[in-house]
Amino acid sequence: MSPLPFFQLGSQFEHVDFADLLELTKLVKFDIVVSRVSWLEFLRKRKIQTLECISKVRQLRASLEKLGPNGDELKAIEDRMANFEKNLEEVFEKKLSDLKIGTLKLVECRIEDLLKMSIENTPPFEESNEKGFRDSLIMFSILEAVKGRPDLNALVVSGDKLFAEGILSRQKEYGTSITVVEDLGSAVAHILTLVDEVLRNQRQKEKKEAKDLLLKNQSEIEKAVEKIREFSYLELMDSKLGYIERVVSLKFKDVASATWKSRTEDSATILFALNCQLTVLVSAPWGFLDTRYQVGGGQVITTGGTGKPEEKTIEKIVFGVAEFTKKNGDFQLVRLETDKSLPTEDLVKLISRE
Question: How, if at all, do strands 154-157 and 178-181 pair?
Fold first, then answer.
Protein backbone atom coordinates (compact mmCIF):
# COMPACT_ATOMS: atom_id res chain seq x y z
CA MET A 1 0.00 0.00 0.00
CA SER A 2 1.38 3.41 -0.90
CA PRO A 3 1.83 6.01 1.86
CA LEU A 4 -1.40 7.77 2.68
CA PRO A 5 -0.84 11.36 3.86
CA PHE A 6 -3.64 12.25 6.21
CA PHE A 7 -4.40 15.94 6.73
CA GLN A 8 -6.27 16.52 10.00
CA LEU A 9 -7.88 19.96 9.89
CA GLY A 10 -9.44 19.86 13.34
CA SER A 11 -7.88 20.45 16.74
CA GLN A 12 -9.11 17.61 18.96
CA PHE A 13 -6.50 15.06 19.92
CA GLU A 14 -8.52 13.51 22.75
CA HIS A 15 -11.13 11.82 20.59
CA VAL A 16 -12.07 8.15 20.25
CA ASP A 17 -11.96 8.28 16.42
CA PHE A 18 -8.57 9.94 16.57
CA ALA A 19 -7.38 7.16 18.89
CA ASP A 20 -8.65 4.62 16.33
CA LEU A 21 -6.76 6.48 13.63
CA LEU A 22 -3.52 6.35 15.61
CA GLU A 23 -4.06 2.62 16.14
CA LEU A 24 -4.34 2.15 12.38
CA THR A 25 -0.87 3.65 11.88
CA LYS A 26 0.50 0.53 13.60
CA LEU A 27 -1.00 -1.63 10.86
CA VAL A 28 -0.77 0.58 7.79
CA LYS A 29 1.95 3.02 6.78
CA PHE A 30 0.53 6.52 6.40
CA ASP A 31 1.38 9.98 7.70
CA ILE A 32 -0.84 12.23 9.78
CA VAL A 33 -0.14 15.88 9.07
CA VAL A 34 -1.63 19.04 10.58
CA SER A 35 -1.62 22.20 8.51
CA ARG A 36 0.46 25.08 9.89
CA VAL A 37 -2.64 27.29 9.93
CA SER A 38 -4.66 24.75 11.92
CA TRP A 39 -1.78 24.20 14.32
CA LEU A 40 -1.42 27.92 15.09
CA GLU A 41 -5.17 28.10 15.61
CA PHE A 42 -4.97 25.11 17.94
CA LEU A 43 -2.22 26.77 19.99
CA ARG A 44 -4.17 30.06 20.12
CA LYS A 45 -7.22 28.31 21.56
CA ARG A 46 -5.11 26.37 24.07
CA LYS A 47 -3.48 29.63 25.16
CA ILE A 48 -6.88 31.26 25.68
CA GLN A 49 -8.05 28.27 27.73
CA THR A 50 -4.86 28.36 29.83
CA LEU A 51 -5.16 32.09 30.52
CA GLU A 52 -8.81 31.62 31.50
CA CYS A 53 -7.79 28.86 33.89
CA ILE A 54 -5.09 31.05 35.44
CA SER A 55 -7.61 33.85 35.87
CA LYS A 56 -10.07 31.53 37.64
CA VAL A 57 -7.34 30.26 39.99
CA ARG A 58 -6.41 33.86 40.84
CA GLN A 59 -10.04 34.74 41.53
CA LEU A 60 -10.46 31.66 43.70
CA ARG A 61 -7.27 32.46 45.64
CA ALA A 62 -8.38 36.05 46.19
CA SER A 63 -11.80 34.90 47.41
CA LEU A 64 -10.21 32.34 49.72
CA GLU A 65 -7.79 34.89 51.26
CA LYS A 66 -10.69 37.29 51.92
CA LEU A 67 -12.20 34.60 54.11
CA GLY A 68 -8.94 34.18 56.04
CA PRO A 69 -7.31 30.89 54.94
CA ASN A 70 -3.84 31.02 53.37
CA GLY A 71 -3.88 30.74 49.58
CA ASP A 72 -0.32 29.42 49.11
CA GLU A 73 -1.46 26.12 47.63
CA LEU A 74 -3.52 27.92 44.99
CA LYS A 75 -0.56 30.26 44.38
CA ALA A 76 1.58 27.21 43.60
CA ILE A 77 -1.04 25.99 41.11
CA GLU A 78 -1.19 29.48 39.57
CA ASP A 79 2.60 29.50 39.15
CA ARG A 80 2.56 26.06 37.50
CA MET A 81 -0.15 27.20 35.12
CA ALA A 82 1.77 30.38 34.32
CA ASN A 83 4.87 28.32 33.57
CA PHE A 84 2.75 26.02 31.37
CA GLU A 85 1.39 29.04 29.47
CA LYS A 86 4.91 30.34 28.94
CA ASN A 87 6.06 27.01 27.44
CA LEU A 88 2.73 26.05 25.88
CA GLU A 89 3.98 25.85 22.29
CA GLU A 90 6.95 23.67 23.25
CA VAL A 91 4.74 21.34 25.35
CA PHE A 92 2.23 20.72 22.56
CA GLU A 93 4.89 20.40 19.89
CA LYS A 94 6.45 17.61 21.94
CA LYS A 95 3.04 15.96 22.26
CA LEU A 96 2.63 16.24 18.49
CA SER A 97 6.05 14.69 17.99
CA ASP A 98 5.32 11.85 20.43
CA LEU A 99 2.18 11.04 18.45
CA LYS A 100 4.32 11.06 15.28
CA ILE A 101 2.18 13.79 13.72
CA GLY A 102 3.86 16.23 11.36
CA THR A 103 3.18 19.89 10.57
CA LEU A 104 2.52 20.75 6.95
CA LYS A 105 4.76 23.47 5.58
CA LEU A 106 2.93 26.71 4.83
CA VAL A 107 2.98 27.41 1.11
CA GLU A 108 3.68 30.91 -0.22
CA CYS A 109 0.61 32.38 -1.86
CA ARG A 110 0.44 35.49 -4.03
CA ILE A 111 -1.72 38.13 -2.37
CA GLU A 112 -3.06 39.07 -5.79
CA ASP A 113 -4.34 35.51 -6.32
CA LEU A 114 -6.06 35.42 -2.92
CA LEU A 115 -7.58 38.84 -3.53
CA LYS A 116 -8.98 37.70 -6.87
CA MET A 117 -10.42 34.55 -5.27
CA SER A 118 -12.02 36.66 -2.53
CA ILE A 119 -13.56 39.12 -5.02
CA GLU A 120 -14.91 36.32 -7.22
CA ASN A 121 -16.09 34.23 -4.22
CA THR A 122 -14.00 31.30 -5.41
CA PRO A 123 -14.21 28.42 -2.88
CA PRO A 124 -13.24 28.31 -0.08
CA PHE A 125 -14.11 32.05 0.03
CA GLU A 126 -17.70 32.77 1.01
CA GLU A 127 -19.96 35.34 -0.55
CA SER A 128 -21.57 36.49 2.69
CA ASN A 129 -18.60 37.70 4.73
CA GLU A 130 -15.54 37.08 2.55
CA LYS A 131 -14.36 34.40 4.95
CA GLY A 132 -11.81 32.03 3.43
CA PHE A 133 -8.29 33.42 3.84
CA ARG A 134 -7.11 30.79 6.33
CA ASP A 135 -8.85 27.97 4.48
CA SER A 136 -7.16 29.09 1.26
CA LEU A 137 -3.74 28.87 2.89
CA ILE A 138 -4.58 25.39 4.15
CA MET A 139 -5.91 24.33 0.76
CA PHE A 140 -2.88 25.50 -1.23
CA SER A 141 -0.47 24.03 1.34
CA ILE A 142 -2.12 20.62 0.93
CA LEU A 143 -2.24 20.85 -2.85
CA GLU A 144 1.44 21.79 -3.02
CA ALA A 145 2.37 18.90 -0.69
CA VAL A 146 0.74 16.30 -2.95
CA LYS A 147 1.36 17.99 -6.30
CA GLY A 148 2.01 15.45 -9.05
CA ARG A 149 1.49 12.50 -6.66
CA PRO A 150 -1.91 10.88 -7.26
CA ASP A 151 -0.44 7.64 -5.88
CA LEU A 152 -0.34 9.09 -2.37
CA ASN A 153 -4.08 8.61 -1.79
CA ALA A 154 -4.26 11.92 0.09
CA LEU A 155 -7.11 12.07 2.58
CA VAL A 156 -8.37 15.38 3.97
CA VAL A 157 -10.75 15.83 6.89
CA SER A 158 -13.00 18.86 6.69
CA GLY A 159 -16.67 19.43 7.38
CA ASP A 160 -16.53 22.68 5.39
CA LYS A 161 -18.33 22.10 2.08
CA LEU A 162 -16.79 25.16 0.41
CA PHE A 163 -13.31 24.02 1.40
CA ALA A 164 -14.02 20.54 0.03
CA GLU A 165 -15.38 22.03 -3.19
CA GLY A 166 -12.32 24.24 -3.56
CA ILE A 167 -9.67 21.59 -3.05
CA LEU A 168 -11.44 18.95 -5.14
CA SER A 169 -11.86 21.38 -8.04
CA ARG A 170 -8.06 21.84 -8.25
CA GLN A 171 -7.01 18.18 -8.30
CA LYS A 172 -6.48 18.11 -12.05
CA GLU A 173 -4.56 21.40 -12.00
CA TYR A 174 -2.14 19.97 -9.43
CA GLY A 175 -1.99 16.51 -10.99
CA THR A 176 -3.08 14.69 -7.87
CA SER A 177 -5.93 12.74 -6.30
CA ILE A 178 -7.58 13.77 -3.05
CA THR A 179 -10.44 12.35 -1.01
CA VAL A 180 -12.29 14.62 1.43
CA VAL A 181 -14.31 13.23 4.34
CA GLU A 182 -16.36 15.15 6.90
CA ASP A 183 -15.01 13.75 10.16
CA LEU A 184 -12.48 11.45 11.80
CA GLY A 185 -14.92 8.54 11.96
CA SER A 186 -15.36 8.70 8.19
CA ALA A 187 -11.59 8.90 7.79
CA VAL A 188 -11.10 5.70 9.80
CA ALA A 189 -13.79 3.92 7.76
CA HIS A 190 -12.20 5.10 4.49
CA ILE A 191 -8.77 3.82 5.49
CA LEU A 192 -10.20 0.47 6.57
CA THR A 193 -11.83 0.14 3.15
CA LEU A 194 -8.49 0.83 1.48
CA VAL A 195 -6.79 -1.70 3.73
CA ASP A 196 -9.38 -4.32 2.78
CA GLU A 197 -8.81 -3.58 -0.90
CA VAL A 198 -5.04 -3.78 -0.45
CA LEU A 199 -5.33 -7.13 1.30
CA ARG A 200 -7.53 -8.46 -1.51
CA ASN A 201 -5.04 -7.25 -4.11
CA GLN A 202 -2.17 -8.77 -2.14
CA ARG A 203 -4.03 -12.07 -1.93
CA GLN A 204 -4.64 -12.06 -5.67
CA LYS A 205 -0.98 -11.27 -6.25
CA GLU A 206 0.10 -14.19 -4.06
CA LYS A 207 -2.31 -16.54 -5.83
CA LYS A 208 -0.94 -15.45 -9.21
CA GLU A 209 2.62 -16.06 -8.00
CA ALA A 210 1.62 -19.57 -6.91
CA LYS A 211 -0.11 -20.24 -10.24
CA ASP A 212 2.85 -18.93 -12.26
CA LEU A 213 5.25 -21.18 -10.33
CA LEU A 214 3.03 -24.18 -11.00
CA LEU A 215 2.80 -23.44 -14.71
CA LYS A 216 6.59 -23.43 -14.95
CA ASN A 217 6.20 -27.15 -14.27
CA GLN A 218 3.32 -27.77 -16.67
CA SER A 219 4.82 -30.96 -18.07
CA GLU A 220 4.91 -32.45 -14.57
CA ILE A 221 1.30 -31.40 -14.00
CA GLU A 222 0.25 -33.11 -17.23
CA LYS A 223 2.04 -36.31 -16.21
CA ALA A 224 0.36 -36.25 -12.80
CA VAL A 225 -3.08 -35.82 -14.38
CA GLU A 226 -2.43 -38.76 -16.71
CA LYS A 227 -1.84 -40.97 -13.67
CA ILE A 228 -5.51 -40.63 -12.73
CA ARG A 229 -6.88 -43.78 -14.34
CA GLU A 230 -10.28 -44.32 -12.77
CA PHE A 231 -13.58 -42.53 -12.06
CA SER A 232 -16.65 -43.89 -10.32
CA TYR A 233 -20.15 -43.62 -11.77
CA LEU A 234 -21.07 -41.01 -9.15
CA GLU A 235 -18.08 -38.87 -10.14
CA LEU A 236 -19.23 -38.85 -13.76
CA MET A 237 -22.99 -38.80 -13.28
CA ASP A 238 -24.57 -36.08 -15.40
CA SER A 239 -28.10 -36.37 -16.78
CA LYS A 240 -27.19 -34.29 -19.81
CA LEU A 241 -24.52 -36.75 -20.97
CA GLY A 242 -26.59 -39.88 -21.28
CA TYR A 243 -25.04 -43.30 -20.73
CA ILE A 244 -21.22 -43.21 -20.49
CA GLU A 245 -19.75 -46.31 -22.13
CA ARG A 246 -16.09 -45.41 -21.74
CA VAL A 247 -13.69 -42.70 -20.54
CA VAL A 248 -11.46 -41.85 -23.48
CA SER A 249 -9.01 -39.37 -21.94
CA LEU A 250 -8.32 -36.83 -19.21
CA LYS A 251 -6.19 -33.83 -20.17
CA PHE A 252 -4.91 -30.83 -18.23
CA LYS A 253 -6.22 -27.46 -19.45
CA ASP A 254 -5.26 -24.78 -16.89
CA VAL A 255 -4.64 -24.03 -13.21
CA ALA A 256 -8.04 -22.98 -11.88
CA SER A 257 -6.77 -21.83 -8.49
CA ALA A 258 -3.63 -21.98 -6.39
CA THR A 259 -2.66 -20.86 -2.91
CA TRP A 260 0.39 -21.10 -0.68
CA LYS A 261 -0.12 -23.65 2.07
CA SER A 262 3.26 -22.64 3.45
CA ARG A 263 6.20 -20.57 2.23
CA THR A 264 9.61 -19.94 3.76
CA GLU A 265 12.92 -18.69 2.43
CA ASP A 266 13.99 -22.19 1.37
CA SER A 267 10.80 -24.17 0.76
CA ALA A 268 7.16 -23.83 -0.26
CA THR A 269 4.00 -25.92 -0.57
CA ILE A 270 1.16 -25.02 -2.94
CA LEU A 271 -2.38 -26.32 -2.92
CA PHE A 272 -4.08 -26.16 -6.31
CA ALA A 273 -7.14 -27.00 -8.39
CA LEU A 274 -6.84 -27.84 -12.07
CA ASN A 275 -9.30 -27.40 -14.90
CA CYS A 276 -9.16 -30.63 -16.90
CA GLN A 277 -10.98 -31.86 -19.99
CA LEU A 278 -12.58 -35.27 -19.67
CA THR A 279 -13.51 -36.95 -22.94
CA VAL A 280 -16.08 -39.76 -22.71
CA LEU A 281 -17.91 -42.04 -25.13
CA VAL A 282 -21.66 -41.62 -24.70
CA SER A 283 -24.64 -43.56 -26.02
CA ALA A 284 -28.39 -43.14 -25.52
CA PRO A 285 -29.83 -43.94 -22.06
CA TRP A 286 -30.54 -47.51 -20.99
CA GLY A 287 -33.95 -49.12 -21.35
CA PHE A 288 -35.62 -47.69 -18.23
CA LEU A 289 -35.19 -44.28 -19.81
CA ASP A 290 -36.36 -45.56 -23.22
CA THR A 291 -39.45 -47.59 -22.17
CA ARG A 292 -42.02 -48.50 -24.87
CA TYR A 293 -45.79 -48.80 -24.13
CA GLN A 294 -48.15 -51.12 -26.10
CA VAL A 295 -51.67 -49.87 -26.85
CA GLY A 296 -54.00 -52.02 -24.80
CA GLY A 297 -51.02 -53.85 -23.29
CA GLY A 298 -48.12 -53.45 -20.89
CA GLN A 299 -44.67 -51.89 -21.18
CA VAL A 300 -41.73 -53.33 -23.03
CA ILE A 301 -38.32 -52.60 -21.45
CA THR A 302 -35.53 -52.24 -23.97
CA THR A 303 -32.12 -53.47 -22.83
CA GLY A 304 -29.68 -51.29 -24.65
CA GLY A 305 -28.91 -47.84 -25.89
CA THR A 306 -29.96 -46.67 -29.29
CA GLY A 307 -27.88 -44.90 -31.89
CA LYS A 308 -24.14 -44.76 -32.47
CA PRO A 309 -21.99 -43.74 -29.46
CA GLU A 310 -20.38 -40.30 -29.70
CA GLU A 311 -17.57 -38.49 -27.92
CA LYS A 312 -18.39 -35.67 -25.51
CA THR A 313 -16.17 -33.50 -23.34
CA ILE A 314 -16.86 -32.18 -19.88
CA GLU A 315 -14.90 -30.00 -17.47
CA LYS A 316 -13.47 -31.84 -14.50
CA ILE A 317 -11.74 -30.33 -11.48
CA VAL A 318 -8.68 -32.15 -10.21
CA PHE A 319 -6.96 -31.17 -6.97
CA GLY A 320 -3.36 -31.47 -5.93
CA VAL A 321 -0.38 -30.42 -3.85
CA ALA A 322 3.11 -29.41 -4.95
CA GLU A 323 6.26 -29.05 -2.85
CA PHE A 324 9.26 -26.92 -3.79
CA THR A 325 12.79 -26.45 -2.49
CA LYS A 326 14.99 -23.51 -3.33
CA LYS A 327 18.09 -24.38 -5.34
CA ASN A 328 20.45 -21.88 -6.93
CA GLY A 329 18.09 -19.05 -5.98
CA ASP A 330 14.95 -20.57 -7.58
CA PHE A 331 12.19 -22.85 -6.32
CA GLN A 332 12.55 -26.33 -7.81
CA LEU A 333 9.69 -28.85 -7.84
CA VAL A 334 10.40 -31.89 -5.62
CA ARG A 335 6.92 -33.42 -5.33
CA LEU A 336 3.63 -33.04 -7.18
CA GLU A 337 0.57 -35.18 -6.60
CA THR A 338 -2.96 -34.96 -7.98
CA ASP A 339 -6.22 -36.57 -6.97
CA LYS A 340 -9.93 -36.21 -7.59
CA SER A 341 -10.29 -34.65 -4.16
CA LEU A 342 -8.23 -33.00 -1.45
CA PRO A 343 -8.14 -33.79 2.28
CA THR A 344 -10.87 -31.72 3.94
CA GLU A 345 -8.39 -29.49 5.78
CA ASP A 346 -6.49 -28.60 2.61
CA LEU A 347 -9.68 -28.16 0.58
CA VAL A 348 -11.01 -25.64 3.11
CA LYS A 349 -7.71 -23.75 2.98
CA LEU A 350 -7.78 -23.61 -0.81
CA ILE A 351 -11.40 -22.46 -0.99
CA SER A 352 -10.98 -19.90 1.81
CA ARG A 353 -8.32 -18.11 -0.20
CA GLU A 354 -10.61 -17.57 -3.17
Answer: parallel
Nearest to 335 by CA among 253, 276, 274, 269: 269
| pLDDT band, very low/low/confident/very high, at 342 (cuts 50, 70, 90) | low
Separation of alpha carbons 233 and 244, rounded Å? 9
Looking at residue 165, its amino acid is E
3-state secondary structure of 25: coil
Residue among 35, 47, 41, 29 at smallest CA distance from 7: 35
Q: What is the mean pLDDT of residues 326-345?
A: 79
Q: Tell me, yes or no, whether 271 and 180 share the same domain.
A: no
Contacts of 84 (CB under 8 A, 6+ apart): 50, 91
**Residue 191 and residue 63 in one domain:** yes
Residues 57 and 190 in one domain: yes
Of the residues 169, 197, 225, the one at which a domain ends = 197
Domain limits at 145? Answer: 6-197
The verdict on residue 46 lying in a domain is: yes
Q: Calculate ∠ Cα 113-121-181, nearest 5°.
A: 95
Tens-digit pLDDT profile for residues 14-58: 556 677 777 777 777 788 888 888 888 888 888 898 999 999 988
CATH code for position 241 = 3.10.450
Let me know how long the chain is: 354
Number of domains in the chain: 2
Contact in structure between 124 and 166 (CB atoms under 8 Å): yes
Residues 308-335 pLDDT 10s: 778 888 888 888 889 999 888 889 999 8
